[in-house]
Fold each of these.
Amino acid sequence: MYARRGQPKTTTRCRETQGTNSEAITAICKVLALAGNETRLRILFFLKEEGELCPCDFVDILEMSVPSVSQHIRKMKDVGLITSRREGQTLYYSLVQNHNEVLDNVFAKIQKIKR
Amino acid sequence: MYARRGQPKTTTRCRETQGTNSEAITAICKVLALAGNETRLRILFFLKEEGELCPCDFVDILEMSVPSVSQHIRKMKDVGLITSRREGQTLYYSLVQNHNEVLDNVFAKIQKIKR
DNA sequence: ACTTTATTTAAGTATTTGCTTAAATAATTA
DNA sequence: TAATTATTTAAGCAAATACTTAAATAAAGT
């Protein structure tokens, strides 16, 4: 009879703290999943460095196709990580300052590691 | 003739800073990609809270299958995010303190959001 | 030695993700 | 208003991811 059991006290404690933290974990996880893609992390990083940039800039910088860049941008806009401002034909994207307790730390670490 | 061009000064500057930061971005991105999965983020979070836990505990806490938990653990072990210590049949996993400038911030934020 | 428990590993499958090409919007310029 | 530029959106596909079931390894208990 296979009845694997974790340490009872510990697991019930964890299940309880999971209850209170579950939504926070889910929310942060979404941000991490977005930042956990090289193209998107680069986009975020350059927005941090430059303030605002248009899709067309990213196409040049990252050497990727237009729709590919646009689709990555969309995902980040959908969860409110970035916003846009239109100036004629071009859309300027920038970081939404808010989420960024986590992301700022990521950017800081990227700059610190520099070779 | 379609010749989309980003802002020349900006894009060349970005291409340069990308050169110096590329490896840092790639490295951090791997950690974020791992943490950007709910199961793994929960595993990391509970390791932070409890110090050390065995796969069997996570099966109970997260209500997932044994191999599924084990495979998630493996990925994090492979990049050195966690380590193990054996005690009889059971393996105790814990966080490797090192990477964690980024992860610690994530954990702090999870606890801060609490409902 | 045989059985049980804890865990991993392997193989197969379904879902998700990230790209591509093609078409649609939107603003500008001729 | 027709052509050009900037961008998005949609559809299709290939690669990656996360699960499942089944088999393998490892330590203990009987």
Amino acid sequence: MSVKHSLLALIYEKPRHGYELKTGFEDLVESMWPLNAGQVYTTLDRLERDELVASPGHDKKDRKLYTITDQGKEELWSWLKQPVSRSLLKDEFYFKYLCASHIDYEDKAHMIQMQKQTMVKDVLHLTHLKKEMNQSGNQTMKMLVEGALLHLEADIKWLDMIAGK
Amino acid sequence: MSVKHSLLALIYEKPRHGYELKTGFEDLVESMWPLNAGQVYTTLDRLERDELVASPGHDKKDRKLYTITDQGKEELWSWLKQPVSRSLLKDEFYFKYLCASHIDYEDKAHMIQMQKQTMVKDVLHLTHLKKEMNQSGNQTMKMLVEGALLHLEADIKWLDMIAGK
DNA sequence: CAGTATCTATTTACTGAGTATATACATACT
DNA sequence: AGTATGTATATACTCAGTAAATAGATACTG
């Protein structure tokens, strides 16, 4: 999504070094999104070049620390402020379906069935996750799970609709 | 999304040259997704390099034609067959919301309101589009619009839910 | 306790997607 | 005649992300 902005958010919280950002990111997304370690460092290089972060030096263990600049804060706020617009075709399945229709893909029914299966599995998985989160787990993530479930519901409803045509 | 695969689909339909792919793409998405002309040619270069397309030569007007190879067809089928998995965080607003929560962003309520406004506007726009499509317009696109509306409904329901907490 | 696996930590060359911009000829308009 | 628009392509560049290598520290295991 935007690794760049999430790193900015983590550095905004407190000064950090590369590896701490990697683990910080993974904590943030509860390991649901594996992050290539290299990406942290390449992104940091670009952030520093663009003066959204700066480095005041290294810590005791010789790890390069980064702090957010004023410009970096502005960038972070403006990213958060900007609503996301979900253009029709930003949804990958819609786009695939459009391509498949265009070329009269013979297996469109199968395609829809497979997609539905994946989504039903996702519903089961997320429902399980939601239960787990009732005991422990952070509140925000629980809401996201709830949102994702509503999303999946809508998707499945739609798949049934188009499968019936 | 995947310009690469949609170009493959268009070439699969019939041999085409670069400019024809640009216009073909824009017809396909009914101009809802502006495509940088340069991207067509850079993508074609990569497709040719990877032997997913080949060029049998130029047409009468000296435009380089491309045809799909067997390997290209396989790539297209496998893309279409593969269900898309929508990881929780692939949704940009969820991700933003997670970042905002993490840093105690003061204006989360405002953020949610802005997002809702954008979505309500989108609903109006798509509802209008749907009506237009009842007369003219292709059937597939109409279904996508219907799907997007279900999606937006779910999103708005969720936004109301989290705004109330 | 020697050997090995895992964790911490970073670097770098590279690929792939997408953009900006330049060019050039043809046609339409005014 | 001059200007805008449409057709057509090329290319250098940026940005995001990956693969793979390196290396020291710590934990585990027979």
Amino acid sequence: MSTPGSSATPGSQSSLREANQRRVIQAVRDAGAPTQADIARSTGLSRATVSNIVRELSAGGVLVTTPTSAGGRRARAVSLAPAAGLAVGVDFGHSHLRVAIGNLAREVVAEQAMPLDVGASAADGLGAAERLMDGLLSTVGATRTDVLGIGLGVPGPIDAASGTLGSSTILPGWAGIEAAGEARRRLGRPVHVDNDANLGALAEVTWGAARGHADAAYIKIGSGVGAGIVIGGRVYHGPGGTAGEIGHITLNENGPMCRCGNRGCLETYAGGRYLAELLRPTHGDGLTTARIVKLALSGDAPCRRAVGDAGRYAGTGVAGLCNLLNPRLVVVGGDLARAGNLLLEPMAEAVRRSAISSAAAIVSIVPGVLGDRAEVLGALALVLTSSPSPA
Amino acid sequence: MSTPGSSATPGSQSSLREANQRRVIQAVRDAGAPTQADIARSTGLSRATVSNIVRELSAGGVLVTTPTSAGGRRARAVSLAPAAGLAVGVDFGHSHLRVAIGNLAREVVAEQAMPLDVGASAADGLGAAERLMDGLLSTVGATRTDVLGIGLGVPGPIDAASGTLGSSTILPGWAGIEAAGEARRRLGRPVHVDNDANLGALAEVTWGAARGHADAAYIKIGSGVGAGIVIGGRVYHGPGGTAGEIGHITLNENGPMCRCGNRGCLETYAGGRYLAELLRPTHGDGLTTARIVKLALSGDAPCRRAVGDAGRYAGTGVAGLCNLLNPRLVVVGGDLARAGNLLLEPMAEAVRRSAISSAAAIVSIVPGVLGDRAEVLGALALVLTSSPSPA
DNA sequence: AACCTTGAGTTCACTTCTTGAACATGCGAG
DNA sequence: CTCGCATGTTCAAGAAGTGAACTCAAGGTT
């Protein structure tokens, strides 16, 4: 009776069966709504085996087969049972809160954003998230008990294992908060946490520009700079849980002071908050990253220059990443990425210039396709991939 | 007839069988010379299965059972067949050639090094390796047909998949050579190639300082600078096959010209060849890395300073690596590492200083324990782990 | 000395799984 | 309208793991 999740003794036939069930579920997850034949091809299993496993998992309520409305044969799409549960993604940005609800078939069924004060406490933020989530759930006729898990995105370094935020987070009200536990207590459902860059990477690799790539890097350039590293199809967190902090590699020993306590970090040359500082003499106070991008796109010379330089510096850092990890694809996201080629061109140029030739030759620097939804969608994907109903 | 090594399609029964064969072999390796009952207990497999697998592998010549000399029943110790096959590791350094022979029990049974001219052609080098290998084989009473595979270590970037050397190799006579194929033709046995840093990483993780670590980095500082990155227990090569080129991350846009064509690469600040350049005014021509280390250890002030500075610069680069990958362990090897704390202290200090605090806090910078044998042993491990008879 | 206990390794019947082949089904192209 | 063809299902055969029964030998017990 399809008891996935439970693990049989390793090496036994039933463990093989379970492994193959996981393979099938993973294939469905990866492909969205494949046919059984697709699954057979992508997993390498025989059609017969796939047929058996799909029947079992359908009986167990894990998968559903949609009889191709047309009524006939020719492709019965298999997908994860939507009624089996919902996933909630919550993204805390530096000035906004965004919540999305999706089902196991990876369809986003509801999504909403609202502004949130940077200085808000963790309690305030979670309270707002709670209300937003409940509101969205009621619009889709569901309740909290339908929620399999909640993915939480926070800016700044976080240990995904313990769920504790580092001190250098962008949200001062959150420093040192054991975010995962706190959210679990308030929301009453399993919570998974990760930082914004890792979630962006997860989203882009699941739905976006890096789809189908087992190895890739996602660079988020917004107010700060961070990276999500995808290795073997999964976001790599590293032994310490905070991998991907590309924003704080040193470009210049004697450079500007960074909020992390070092000097000359990449972030101080490419992060939106530092660009605002740079542009203060010409543009005054209150310049946001979004505004800088807008001005740059409309031809404002200082802003164009600032964005271009940010791209060059970011490219130098990415070149280092390319030397170390030799990826085929680097996806660029975050607010500053909305400047398009104003940012990407100098960035790609810097990579070609600074990376070792064998690394520069194979890497493509492309913009993310999910925009400011990347983080919420990643939070959603976090639930769908990390605590899947059965996987 | 026990065709281990060849991998069946994942998910199939035969793949399960292979996995269980590996389990048994691993158990034997871990325990030394266990009985079948011991194996059954430690693997969780049934005694019947163990019996079958042991019979197969014995017939295949991989395992041997010693009939407890006493003649009777009661514990037939199982061990890896020493004669089942040998692995050969070959390491081409910038000035030497080193060959080691090991058996499936991971014991090194013969090892020898000889000087080799830097300018030697690939054909010369392979010829010398051939003679050295044959000589060593005869000393252990074996022939080439006993060799299961040959691991080849070369300095410089190499695509492990295609086996072609990049142009920036340290050995000019090898540039563009399709090393794996060339060696296979000459030596007539399966050949696996990788670069020196990756092999050092593999060796340290298999036998040395990083043993038991699934994630770690190995930095080789010798004439050049390179890294081997271990992720999930395996050396990570990246999509392009040349990951780990830490020697060519840019520390200074306007720094010294590097042989890779860029300027201010880490290698130009920490690589032995550049230190020799730096010390030319005080010490004249012909300074080797080994000599610099020796002088530094014996108190020569310029050399101490040069080594210390190299450590600081290397540490800055390693800090970037720590920010990106957040490892718990960084092993330092290569000729310059023989300077011990003269190099490691400033290096660790630079990491503490330049890496983000969460990354600096958890990382240990330790010296490798395999010295200049690291690469050969890694080449040996390459054979034992990548195409192991069955392992 | 004869006997019993105990654990090791093997054999056998049984069950679980995967798989290739054969088969039914229905959409598209010609 | 028919044929080709890919899809999904069923079936029998083969591969593999497992518990139980069995053989075997050492070592202690009576």
